[in-house]
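User: I'm putting together notes for a lab meeting next week and I want to include a structural view of one of the chains we've been expressing. I don't have a solved structure, so I'd like a prediction I can at least talk through. The sequence is below, exactly as it appears in our construct file.
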Amino acid sequence: MAINATGRVAIVTGGGTGIGKAAAVALLKDGWRVAVAGRRAEPLHQMLEEAGAGDSGLAVPTDVAQPESVAALFEAVTGRWGRVDLLFNNAGVGAPGVPLEDLSLEDWKRVVDINLNGMFYCLQQAFRVMKSQQPMGGRIINNGSISAHAPRPNSIAYTATKHAVAGLTKTASLDGRKYDIAVGQIDVGNAATDLASRMARGVPQANGQIAVEPLMDVEIVGKSVLYMASLPLEANILFHTVMATKMPFVGRG
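Assistant: Thanks for the context. Below is the predicted structure for the 253-residue chain, given as C-alpha cells.
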C-alpha cells in the first residue's frame, strides 16, 4: 500500500527546470511539502508559483558543488518543516561533446564536482538528518542516467560520473539499511527537456552517424519519481529505467 504523502517533506535538487521540475510538480500535486534547490533563485520561485505550491513549497538557492551550501539547504528545510522524508538527488550537468583528449580539465572538474561530489554531499546530509529524526528513516532517489549503463560518443566526464552514481546508490542502499533509509536510482533516457532537445535535431551514434532520437514527455519521469517515493520503506526500487520506447539504447553500439 502506498504511503499517505500529506505532510511528508521532499528535497529536489536541480528543481527549477527539466526532470527536477517535473518531479517537484508531481510530488506537490500528491500532497508533499517540497523544497526545490538550484543555483539560480528565479527558476525555483517561478516553478513553485506555476505549481501553486503556496506554503507547501520552499525555494532554497543551492550550489551542490559546495558542501557548506548543501548543509545550509538541509538546515533550511529542517528548520522549516522539521524533517526530510525524501531526497531526489537530481542536480547534474554535462560537458562539451568533444573528443576526450580535447576535454579541458576545467570542464572535467566541473562535471565531477556537481554530478559526483555534489550528489555525495547531498546523500551525506540526508543520511545525517534521516537517521536522527523521529520516526527514523526516509528515501533517497539518485538520478543516474542511461549513461550509467552505456556511454554516448564523446561523453567521458558525464558517463564516468553517472557510472560512479551507481556505486553511490548501491553502497548507500547497503549502509542505509540500519537506519531505515531506502536508496534507489532512476535512469532516464531521452526525456523532453532543454538538456535533451538536441536529440530531436540529431546526435552522434556509436557507428559515427548522426541520427534523430525519439523523446518522451518529461512528466512521465515525474510520475516515475512519485511512484518510487510512494512506496513504504519496507520496499525499495534499487534501479528504475524509464526511457523513450524507441530510443536507440538497447543494442546501442
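A couple of points you could mention at the meeting. Residues 105-130 form the longest helix (26 residues). The longest strand covers residues 181-189.

User: Perfect, that's what I needed.
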